[in-house]
Amino acid sequence: MTDIFSLTTDLYQNDTINDTLDIIDITPNRTMSVEKTWLHPWTFLVALKTTVMALIIIAALFGNLLVIVSVMRHRKLRVITNYFVVSLALADMLVAIWAMCFNFSVEVTGGYWIFGYFMCDVWNSLDVYFSTASILHLCCISVDRYYAIVQPLDYPLIMTNGRLIVMLAIVWCSPALMSFLPIFMGWYTTVEHTAFRKKNPDVCLFVVNRTYSVISSSVSFWVPGMVMILMYYRIYVEADRQERMLYRSKVAAALLNKHLQINGISAGLTTLRHSLDASLEAEKNNASASDPGTSSKMRRERKAARTLGIIVSAFLACWLPFFLWYVISAICGTQLCHSPPWVVTLVFWVGYFNSALNPLIYAYFNREFRVAFKKTLQGCCQMTSKLLCRRWRRRREPISYSNASSEIHGNHLGREVGFGPGPRCSYNISEGEIVNLQSEAVI
């Protein structure tokens, strides 16, 4: 009996040891597999990609909304050029809403399209439409700056409100001919891709044929880009000419001043120098010397041209990789010029990033926009504070009583009963209610 008991005990201990060894062997492997799953490089890259895309969408929405609100609130910014800027900000907001959000959903779902066959055409059409509209806005801005810098006297006659409306109408209507019409008619793609889409409605790819790629890229990017580069080159040449003329006028005035001092002529020197500067300034601006605001206006125009030149340069840097890939892949074909999915995602979102970059350029390089942004954000903070104060008052209304014998402020009451400091809102309450509230707070 003892031998049977000892044998049973030994078997139990051996089974327990074996189970323990199994747990020791298996549990670390399971833990390591879970850690490997969570620390997999692809998981980290997907999380990083999703975060960056979400930040770009949020920055594009709120940054361009800040541009629109700032121009509408501040009268100083209500000039013809800034109406183009407001329209550009609206186009960039629509890019964020319609193009970026749909692309973000595809990236999050791993390439799966959940909106159906028809909405795929809608997404591709809106993407092409708003991107083209954004480029054409920048082209109009460059033309506007060209006339403001090179022909300042004729600028009020050239850029009138009527022409502003016509240009904006062309900018918003003409991209529809390159987006909605060819895409919904099926002219933009190949026969093979059309058959593939009918068999796979859960995949939304923008595959174009050679003819459409050349025509659409020329209308949307290459021709407007060349116009912008030409306009800003002319603006640069004119600004350089004005700077050299200003430098020569200063050198001539300094030499004349030195010559008069050497010859002992000091009477009327200040008057002579001012008259010389006025004549040279009038020659530089091709305007009459009687206009006292011409010099400051020209300085503002040059600063605006520099800011908008930086915007155009940033735009070309963001969208040039996409259009190079777009044309090369369409001409070579998918078999000869196959692009990995990460390359396609990168060129798309680098182009989308331009919509979030423009407001940052306005705030950093343009002092007037910087001041307007600051005032607009301060106004939003004040409005938010007022709304929170009203909400705090409504939440405290059930315990608000009036008594002619005592008055205390809401902040003091909040600190006494444990509500926190709260907004600066006043309340009237009786002493008996204070005692009751304090006893309840202690309990």
Describe this structure in words.
It is a single chain. The longest helix is centred in the middle third of the chain and has 53 residues, at 210-262. Helix content is 79%, strand content 1%. The chain starts with a helix and ends with a helix. Helix 11 (294-332) runs antiparallel to helix 12. By secondary structure, it is mostly helical. It is built from 15 helices and two strands. It is a multi-pass membrane protein. One of its GO terms (biological process) is positive regulation of MAPK cascade. It is found in: Cell membrane.
Shape: globular
How far from one another are the termini? 68 Å
Mean pLDDT: 74
Q: Report the biggest beta sheet as strand number plus sense, adding barrel if it closes.
A: 2 strands, antiparallel
CATH class membership of the largest domain: Mainly Alpha
Can you give the helix content as a percent range?
Answer: over 70%
User: Which structural class matches the secondary elements?
Assistant: mainly alpha
Helical element count?
Answer: 15
CATH topology of the largest domain: Rhopdopsin 7-helix transmembrane proteins
Low-confidence stretches: 1-39, 287-292, 399-443
Quote the beta fraction: under 5%
Q: How many structural domains does the protein architecture include?
A: 2
Say how many strands there are.
2
Rg is 35 Å
Order of helices and strands: HHHHHHHHHHHHHEHEH
CATH architecture of the largest domain: Up-down Bundle
In the sheet with the most strands, the strands line up as 1-2
For CATH, the homologous superfamily of the largest domain is named as Rhodopsin 7-helix transmembrane proteins
Organism: Sitophilus oryzae
GO cellular component, one term: plasma membrane
Pfam families: 7tm_1 (PF00001)
GO molecular function: octopamine receptor activity
